TrEMBL record:
NCBIfam families: PRK05231.1 (NF003558), thrB_alt (TIGR00938). GO terms for molecular function: homoserine kinase activity. The lineage of its organism: Bacteria, Pseudomonadati, Pseudomonadota, Betaproteobacteria, Rhodocyclales. It catalyses: L-homoserine + ATP = O-phospho-L-homoserine + ADP + H(+). Belongs to the pseudomonas-type ThrB family. This is Homoserine kinase.
């Protein structure tokens, strides 16, 4: 379910007018996605994606849209927000902050090969370096402080064995010092469903920058590794692609096992939060928190060194 707000043709046509993209020909809701309402929109000027942000703070939205425009300028295949003559990247539609972005080609893949992972690694490193030039970037909203706060709120809601695991992991993570790890703007959610591919392993687009913010670059690589690389061969390809653009420091190599755990913890908590503490009015499509609990347990039992 991803269309929470229904947009009528006349109100959409009026909203589109300042963008000067020609007459509205068609608009249709997009079924994928969980957080926002998305539509494919076709005008005389081309095909676009309209997003109505259901619960995004407008100041954060300014940053997310500036980031995508900046990365698109740098040659990364990111959606480019349409801008009106006054320089606005979003305006209200049906009472929700809304933006029109370029529609990127391709489909996501569920079972990526080593070449997909290599390309994602290369692209992630390019994204990190390109985003470094962006001014006034906020911190990752779901960084270490968020993990501790949400983790502690969830503890009383979990069965005893899960609460014990979570309490122990929170204590372990609280003892980590990430201050020596190189930092910058990270995507923070570059899962397989947020990357589009055209035939074989040709990159079509990167989507969904709505968790982005400043954090350790290594954390972003761990988020990607946890979703894309269930085996060593694909992890080696991902890391090889990444380090071909930005070599890792000795501190990053040493921190990898703990940061991989932090990345697994982040998405275990996100999914637990959606299940146990849904926001009012949220239509919850809960993905299985167990996927990330099991990954975390695996890393705690057998820390994996970084290949290469
Ligand atoms: N710029 C774009 N070009 C092509 N397709 C897009 C674009 N933006 C979104 N989509 C399509 O819409 C779907 C939903 O988008 P998105 O993942 O951003 O949803 P969401 O509800 O905002 O976020 P989430 O996946 O985190 O719940 C994507 O899976 C993709 O199919
Ligand atoms: N990628 C997240 C959803 C947030 O977009 C997950 O799989 O839990």
């Amino acid at each position: 379910m991803s269309v929470y707000t229904t947009v009528g043709r006349a109100e959409l046509a009026a909203w589109l007018a300042p963008l000067e993209l020609g007459a509205l020909l068609d608009h249709a809701g997009i079924a994928a996605g969980m957080q926002n309402s998305n539509y494919f929109v076709t005008t005389d000027g081309g095909r676009f994606v309209l997003t109505l942000f259901e619960a995004t703070d407008p100041a954060a939205l300014d940053f997310y849209l500036r980031l995508q425009a900046h990365l698109a300028d740098a040659g990364l295949p990111c959606p480019r927000p349409a801008v009106d003559a006054a320089g606005r990247l979003w305006r209200p539609l049906c009472g929700k902050p809304s933006a029109l972005l370029s529609c990127l080609p391709g489909e996501s893949v569920d079972d990526p090969g080593a070449e997909h992972c290599r390309v994602v690694g290369t692209t992630l490193a390019r994204l990190h370096l390109a985003a470094a030039g962006l001014s006034e970037a906020p911190a990752n909203p779901c960084g270490a402080a968020w993990r501790q706060t949400v983790g502690e709120r969830l503890l009383p809601l979990l069965p005893a064995d899960e609460a014990a695991l979570l309490a122990d992991e929170l204590a372990f993570q609280a003892g980590q010092d990430g201050s020596s790890l190189p930092q910058g703007v990270i995507h923070a959610d570059l899962f397989r469903d947020n990357v589009l591919w055209q035939d074989d392993a040709r990159l079509g687009g990167l989507l969904d920058f709505y968790f982005a913010g400043i954090d350790a670059w290594l954390f972003d690589l761990a988020v990607v590794a946890n979703d894309w690389c269930p085996d060593d061969g694909r992890l080696a390809a991902l890391v090889d692609g990444y380090t071909g653009v930005r070599p890792l420091t000795a501190d990053e190599r040493a921190a990898w096992p703990a940061v991989r755990r932090a990345a697994a913890l982040r998405f275990w908590l996100l999914r637990l939060e959606a299940r146990h503490m849904p926001r009012a009015g949220e239509v919850v499509t809960v993905k299985d928190p167990g996927d990330f609990r099991r990954l975390l347990e695996k890393f705690r039992l057998a820390p994996e060194a970084l290949p290469g």
